[in-house]
Amino acid sequence: MSLLHPARRLLVVLLTGALTLAGLLVAGAGIASAHVTVSSADAAPGGYAKITFRVPNESDTTSTVALRIQVPTDAPLASLRAQPVAGWTVTLTESDLAEPVETNGEQISSAVTVVEFRAADGGGIAPGQFQEFSLSGGPLPDADSLIFSAVQSYSDGTEAAWIEPTIEGQAEPEHPAPVLSLSAAGSADATPEPAATTDPATGSDTDSGNGLAVTALVVGILGLVAGLAGLGLGLTARRRTVSS
């Protein structure tokens, strides 16, 4: 039984490590892009807007069957409607507010606080797919952003709670709550789906940047692999020349 030459053993170890690292980078990029996000093309303080939630399915084996959205109660929306989605039912839950608020000169004491989209039996968002759910409402508060906590339910009974706050200067949490930016020029998700994120339907500049970065890293690693292979061939050829 012949043993590998030390140079060949080193080459095998380096090649294996490089290919493993490349695989981890690609897999990690997919996980990072699986956030539930929210965006709007016309959201502005004091106005009405179409608000869209993009929901990628993170699981490789089960479907997403429900999405529950918590509407902020500290800045309630006097008017809120849901856009129908084929194969899904939608329920709007209205609750009494702790304190009445004035909107357009009127006092409101209750507002929609929870919106739930639920798939029909046997339906849902399958592995590798995503779905968008839209609301229309306002007036939006006089603020820079609006936070919508969300819970994503799977067909196996598990849930992903997108409720963690994103704090400036700190690393992004594992399950960030969707943040809607408000501006006269429109809005962009504060925690963009490195997308499906972009998130899949509309994409985002952040997502493109992440994809290019991963591609560059993988190309660099493959270049390293090619270089190591060339080194191994060179060493083999040199040994043959010396031995001859």
Kindly list the characteristics that best describe this protein.
single chain; 244 residues; alpha+beta; Immunoglobulin-like; 5-stranded antiparallel beta sheet; 4-stranded antiparallel beta sheet; 2 helices; disordered C terminus
Net shape: globular
Tell me the Rg in angstroms.
Answer: 25 Å
- The percent range for strand residues is 25-35%
- Give the N-terminus to C-terminus distance in angstroms: 23 Å
**Total tally of structural domains:** 2
CATH class value of the largest domain: Mainly Beta
Helical content (DSSP H or I, runs of 4+): 25-40%
In CATH terms, the superfamily of the largest domain is: Uncharacterised protein YcnI-like PF07987, DUF1775
Strand order of the largest sheet: 5-6-3-9-10
CATH topology of the largest domain, which one? Immunoglobulin-like
- With helices defined by DSSP (H or I, 4 residues minimum), what is the helix count? 2
Helix and strand composition category: alpha+beta
Q: Which segments are poorly predicted (pLDDT under 50) over 5 or more consecutive residues?
A: 10-32, 185-219, 233-244
What CATH architecture label of the largest domain applies? Sandwich
Largest β-sheet summary: 5 strands, antiparallel
Q: How many beta strands in the DSSP annotation?
A: 11
- Compute the average pLDDT: 75
SSE ordering? HEEEEEEEEEEEH
